[in-house]
Amino acid sequence: MAVNQVAAWKVGLVLLGMCLFGYLVGPPLFWYFMEGLAAVSHTSNTCPPCLCDCSSQPILTIPEGLSNASFADCAKHDPEVSEDTEKNFAELLTEELKLREAEALESQQRADMALLEAKKIASQYQKEADKCNSGMETCEEAREKAEAAMAAQKRLTAMWELRARQKGWREGVAKSHTRSQGNIQAV
Q1: Who contacts 60 (Cβ-Cβ below 8 Å, separation ≥6)?
Q2: Confidence check: pLDDT of 55 > 70
Q3: How many CA atoms lie less than 13 Å away from 102 in the CB half-sphere?
Q4: 36 or 7, which is more confident
Q5: Distances from the Cα of 12 to the Cαs of 17, 40, 56, 85, in angstroms?
Q6: Are 93 and 62 in contact (CB under 8 A)?
Q7: What is the pLDDT of residue 75?
Q8: 180 pLDDT exceeds 80?
């Protein structure tokens, strides 16, 4: 049964590896082949070439999470709008970064507060556990003292019983003697 489980784990890991490989390598290969197909089909089409100035790259490169492709392409070809857009774009980026920084700071503060609360609760539980442990120790000490007192009492009782037997006392006689004295006192 363990061999089957090991084999299943190996198969699962191989499948996971293949999926990760496909996920990482698949999109670039897809676009590479699509460009190749487009180039092949573009030569066969009679479409006129596009008139666009693709040599101009934006001054600022933006991380993918912050970029808005339609905004960057909107004023690409107009030089007057391009300067204003770049200024506005830089301001927007600065504002976005400040917002993200504020969110991160707020998230950090919430995490710190949660951590402090957790520490406070853990401290309270620790105090309760300490109280419980000291109570258990006290009870254990009292039980040990009671056991010692009981053992001493048993020894004392055994000693007195031994002395009484040496003096002629017998258990059955003493009980009937005690009953007869009780009857005499009741009369």
Answers
A1: 86, 89, 90, 93
A2: no
A3: 6
A4: 7
A5: 9, 40, 48, 51
A6: yes
A7: 46
A8: no
| Three-state DSSP string of the chain | CHHHHHHHHHHHHHHHHHHHHHHHHHHHHHHHHHHHHHHHHHHHCCCCCCCCCCCCCCCCCCCCCCCCHHHHHHCCCCHHHHHHHHHHHHHHHHHHHHHHHHHHHHHHHHHHHHHHHHHHHHHHHHHHHHHHHHHHHHHHHHHHHHHHHHHHHHHHHHHHHHHHHHCCCCHHHHHHHHHHHHHHHHC
Query: What is the value of pTM for the model shown?
Result: 0.34
How far CA 25 is from CA of 10, 13, 34, in Å, comes to 22, 18, 14
| The two three-digit tokens of residue 16, written as one number | 């996971």
Angle at 55 between CA 54 and CA 57, to 5 degrees: 95
Triad 77, 78, 83: Cα angle to 5°: 110
CB proximity list for 84: less than 8 A, separation 6 or greater: 75
pLDDT of residue 50: 63
